[in-house]
Amino acid sequence: xxxxxxxxxxxxxxxxxxxxxxxxxxxxxxxxxxxxxxxxxxxxxxxxxxxxxxxxxxxxxxxxxxxxxxxxxxxxxxxxxxxxxxxxxxxxxxxxxxxxxxxxxxxxxxxxxxxxxxxxxxxxxxxxxxxxxxxxxxxxxxxxxxxxxxxxxxxxxxxxxxxxxxxxxxxxxxxx
Length: 176
What we know:
Elements: E1 2-8, E2 14-18, E3 31-43, H1 59-69, E4 72-76, H2 82-90, E5 96-99, H3 104-122, E6 130-139, E7 142-147, H4 150-171
Parallel strand pairs: 2-4, 4-5
Antiparallel strand pairs: 1-3, 2-3, 3-6, 6-7
């Protein structure tokens, strides 16, 4: 197995703010970080140039990171103040980005899924390369990551889909 990594360090300046609205601690308040990201790619074979990935072709990844994490306010979709945050976005007071979950773990999960389900196919990697790990750093000493092999990732997605279908069935009155 060949492995390569791509890092966007704290010096890059991905300055974000968010809050953990479910926290009992001071983390429930809006606070900021300069995030860093590590992406780890694997392939059983190298391409014609003897590479796992063409790092020169990562501009679309950088653009995505810029759009979501460069001077933005990340708000969880279940935050009870979501409408307030949408309003300050509309007023031009913040660049609000809605995410399923705030925090390193939630952002790593968001990026992991985006990388494998959207970015890899859109950038010509097909089934040859898999992004097996995404790590998000809040600080040089605090980080979290999501890591799957390709098989376990597919199983996870199927479980999520089955769980969603079950919830929809319950909501429609399908299960008593």
